[in-house]
Amino acid sequence: MPQFIRTAGYKIYFWSNEKDEPIHFHATKGNPDKDDTKFWILPNGAIKLAHNKGRIPEKDLSKIMTAMQFYYYEFIDFWKTYFGEQVKFYN
């Protein structure tokens, strides 16, 4: 489970077995879980909430998305470095 950053008290990470999915990240305050909140990284520089199974409050979702917008290109590079292949985006 590669962790990218911590923001607003949340770990931002992806699972190491998800390379076949479009680029995305999960957020959690505790230990990572299969039901953590998930966000898609879009090719236009936006972040889209995939689901909020982790029940993160709206104000925290906004903080997480703002932080990840700031680190958009760095996160893509982190993903590429980890998986070593072309990035697929959510459509």
Write the layout of secondary structure elements.
Elements: E1 3-7, E2 10-13, E3 24-28, E4 37-41, E5 47-51, H1 58-70, H2 72-83
Antiparallel strand pairs: 1-2, 2-3, 3-4, 4-5
Please supply descriptive tags for the structure shown above.
five-stranded antiparallel β-sheet; alpha+beta; 91 residues
Oligomer: single chain
Largest sheet: 5 strands, antiparallel
| Radius of gyration, whole Å | 12 Å
Q: Which class of secondary structure composition applies to the elements? A: alpha+beta
Low-confidence spans: none
Note the overall shape. Answer: globular
Report strand order across the widest sheet.
1-2-3-4-5
Order of helices and strands: EEEEEHH
Provide a descriptive summary of the structure in words.
The protein is an alpha+beta fold. The chain has two helices and five strands. The longest helix is centred in the C-terminal third of the chain and has 13 residues, at 58-70. The chain is globular. The model has no long low-confidence stretch (mean pLDDT 94).
Q: Quick summary of this structure?
A:
The protein is 27% helix and 26% strand.
